[in-house]
Amino acid sequence: MGRKSSMTMATIFVVLASTLTTYASTTYTVGDFSGSQVPTNNSNLYDNWADNKTFVVGDNPLFNFITREHDVAEVTEPGYNACTTTDTISTDNKGPVKITL
């Protein structure tokens, strides 16, 4: 009886393991070569940068800036939609900053 139970568990494990896909997170340097700077002549810089990216849970946007020159605020979805920092989850001004989605 014990052997049959062990074989059943082993079979279940193999089936579950074969159905799971391995996911490797991607780190994206925000703004690529322009860095995480406030655009002076291209207000669509970050929109254009994000247009060809597909972000998924586990990815890591990297904000590459000099400490205390900028900050990164992680906000709630309502805060994002309202473009406000009143619902901040965290704020960091020590560059570079990497946040896991």
TrEMBL record:
Q: Domain (Phytocyanin): give its ranges.
A: 26-101
| Highest taxon of the lineage | Eukaryota
Q: Which residues form the signal peptide?
A: 1-24
Q: Which residues cross the membrane?
A: none
CC annotations in GO: plasma membrane
Which Pfam families does the record cross-reference, listed alphabetically? Answer: Cu_bind_like (PF02298)
Q: Which GO terms describe its molecular function?
A: electron transfer activity
Q: Which keywords belong to this entry?
A: Signal
Which protein are we looking at? Answer: Phytocyanin domain-containing protein
- What is the native source organism of this protein? Gossypium darwinii
The beginning of the lineage is: Eukaryota, Viridiplantae, Streptophyta, Embryophyta, Tracheophyta
